[in-house]
Amino acid sequence: MSAYANILATFLAGAGMREHGNFAGITALAMVPIMTGVAGVVDFVSLNNKSGKLQNSLDILALAIATKYYSGMSGDELTRSWR
After folding, report:
1. Which tens digits make up the pLDDT trace of 40-74?
2. Residue of 43, 14, 11 lying closest to 27 (CA atoms)
3. Cβ-contact 69, 62 below 8 angstroms
4. Which own/partner contact pairs does 37-41 have at CB distance under 8 Å and 24+ positions apart?
5. Which of these, 25, 27, 44, 53, is most buried using a 10 Å CB contact count?
6. 3-state secondary structure string, the chain?
7. For the chain, what percent of residues have pLDDT higher than 90?
């Protein structure tokens, strides 16, 4: 078990016997996993937005190429038009 889990288990075992002052301590210990979860969600959303922008850019590129060239062009014509 990790050191954090040991501290949390010890604190929670003794917290049941006390009547006052438990909220601040439990909240402080609970903030670590809560903030880790929030940070993970923020990273996931950011990555998802970036992948969406990349996909949109690639779609625009494909459409630009498709509108410039048509299927009847030979390989030489395609090569010459890039220069």
Report:
1. 999 999 999 999 999 999 988 888 877 776 667 77
2. 11
3. no
4. none
5. 25
6. CCHHHHHHHHHHHHHCCCCCCHHHHHHHHHHHHHHHHHHHHHHHHHHHHHHHHHHHHHHHHHHHHHHHCCCCCCHHHHHHHCC
7. 34
